[in-house]
Design brief:
By secondary structure, this protein is mainly alpha-helical. About 70% of the residues lie in helices and about 0% in strands.
C-alpha cells in the first residue's frame, strides 16, 4: 500500500513541477530536446530515490540538483557540443526583431560559458534561487556559487558590454 501511495505522490509531483524543471533544464542546456531528455533522466533518478526522500516537499530541490549535476556532466562528454542546428522561423511581428536579436546574442554568450558558471547564472538569475539553494542544486558551496556567478557575469559583460542586464525571468525563455 505504501508503494502505491509513493507512486501517487510522485505522479502528483511530476504533474505539478515538470514544467518548471523543464525550464531549468532548457536554460542549462540550450536545446529543447536535450532538456526533455535531461528532465526525464532526472525524474527517473528522483523516482528511484523517492522512498529515501525524507520530505516530499524537498523533491523539487533534489530534482533540480540532479538536473544541474547531470547537465554539468553531460557538458563534459566528448561529443556533446556537436549538434545540428535548425533555422528559426521569422518573427511574426517586426517590433520583436530587435528583442530576438538581442536575446539570441546574449544566449550565444551564455552558452559559451563553462558549465558551472552557466549553471550558477541560470539557477540564480533565471530560476531565481537563493545562493544556498543554487549551491545545494549544484552540489557545491555557497562561495563557489558566488564565485561562478560573478565570474560568469564578468565574462558576459566583457563580451556583451558593461550595460548587460539579464532579462526578467518571464522574458528569459518563452516555452
Amino acid at each position: 500500500m505504501a508503494a502505491h501511495r509513493d507512486t501517487e505522490e510522485f505522479r502528483d509531483f511530476v504533474a505539478s513541477r515538470s514544467a518548471a524543471l523543464f525550464r531549468t533544464a532548457y536554460l542549462l542546456l540550450g536545446d529543447y530536446h536535450l532538456a526533455q531528455d535531461l528532465v526525464q533522466e532526472s525524474l527517473a533518478k528522483t523516482y528511484v530515490a523517492w522512498p529515501r526522500l525524507r520530505e516530499v516537499g524537498n523533491a523539487e530541490a533534489y530534482t533540480r540538483r540532479v538536473i544541474a549535476t547531470t547537465a554539468i556532466s553531460w557538458r563534459r562528454r566528448r561529443g556533446f557540443h556537436e549538434r545540428p542546428s535548425e533555422h528559426l522561423p521569422e518573427p511574426a511581428r517586426d517590433d520583436l526583431e530587435a528583442t530576438v536579436v538581442e536575446h539570441d546574442a546574449l544566449w550565444a554568450h551564455l552558452l559559451a560559458l563553462p558549465p558551472r558558471q552557466r549553471a550558477a547564472i541560470v539557477l540564480r538569475y533565471y530560476v531565481d534561487l537563493t545562493e544556498a539553494q543554487a549551491a545545494d542544486a549544484m552540489g557545491c558551496s555557497v562561495g563557489a556559487v558566488k564565485s561562478s556567478a560573478s565570474t560568469g557575469i564578468s565574462k558576459l559583460r566583457e563580451r556583451v558590454g558593461a550595460d548587460l542586464v539579464l532579462p526578467p525571468r518571464d522574458e528569459a525563455v518563452a516555452l
